């Protein structure tokens, strides 16, 4: 069992632009940093191609469990 929450702080510091540096809050909300980290890790673990990974993310709730409080 991977505890994805433990990676959040490090990922946010490395990947996100600080809130103070953002010029606007307009547009699409940023993609979750943990999801961006999870995607390639899970695709390697499950030996999925890019197309298969995208399909699984869109189709399976288990790949999107961050929305259910996992993140």
Q: What is the gist of this entry?
A:
The two termini are 14 Å apart. By secondary structure, the chain is mostly helical.
- Helices and strands: which structural class? mainly alpha
The unreliable regions are none
Oligomer: single chain
Helix content: 40-55%
Number of discrete helical segments: 3
Number of domains in the coordinates? 1
Task: Work out the number of β strands.
Answer: 0
Terminus-to-terminus distance:
14 Å
SSE sequence, one letter per element: HHH
Amount of beta strand:
under 5%
Give a written overview of the molecule.
By secondary structure, the protein is mostly helical. It has one domain (4-14, 30-68). The protein has three helices and no strands.
Layout of helices and strands:
Blueprint lengths: L7 H8 L17 H13 L4 H10 L12
Helix pairs in contact: 2-3
